[in-house]
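Bench notes, afternoon.
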Amino acid sequence: MSGEKEQEVRHLALRKRRNMIAPSKVKLVTLFDPRSTISEQYRTIRTNIQFSSIDNEIKSLMVTSSGPSEGKSTTVANLAVVFAQQGKKVLLVDADLRRPTVHYTFNVPNTFGMTNVLTKQVAFPEAIRKTEVEDLYVLTSGPIPPNPAELLGAAAMDHLLKEAQDHFDMVLFDTPPVLAVTDAQILANKCDGTLLVIYSGKTEIELVTKAKELLESAKGKLLGTVLNHKEIKGNDYYYQYYGTR
């Protein structure tokens, strides 16, 4: 291979690497800018979650939203990071079997994952992937199935959750929006708590109310809401947690 060709290959590889890393830097502010205002807000949310149920420790948490593009996936990814930074062994599960993003955020393969575990094609321990964040592991979605709700509601999901809680201090689930499909309602009934993410100035209150009612009717424990994209000064934004009463 000529020197010019080798240089071109190196440039293409470097460009590809930059393109892969850039989205993670944007999403994972708690990892790449831990001293920022937003990172501090995530740590505050973490503390509020831990104190939301003193008698019964929260070991499994579902994060969802009423509709799409409200920031639930970014929120749960950063919460996973701050829990891991606290020294907890954390598992982030991509239970959004319709539009999975965890493998993009943490730059890991998604050739197999949660759907393979639920269909007994792959054993749970073999499907877990280590991330570059110490103590943080992910279970990606795996191949998108034709029947996500049925998979999540099956007994295999209960077994997966139990095994996850046996091996990890904290298990977080990223799910589809509540009003889009029934997936989030199914998982809300299985997890110790749920956070509802709201896009400030965009999400309509009627949709939030409807999502809250659906989660409660599914016997999910709504710990609170996270208001994101609330502008403070300049181009800064923060995440605010509101506990339920």
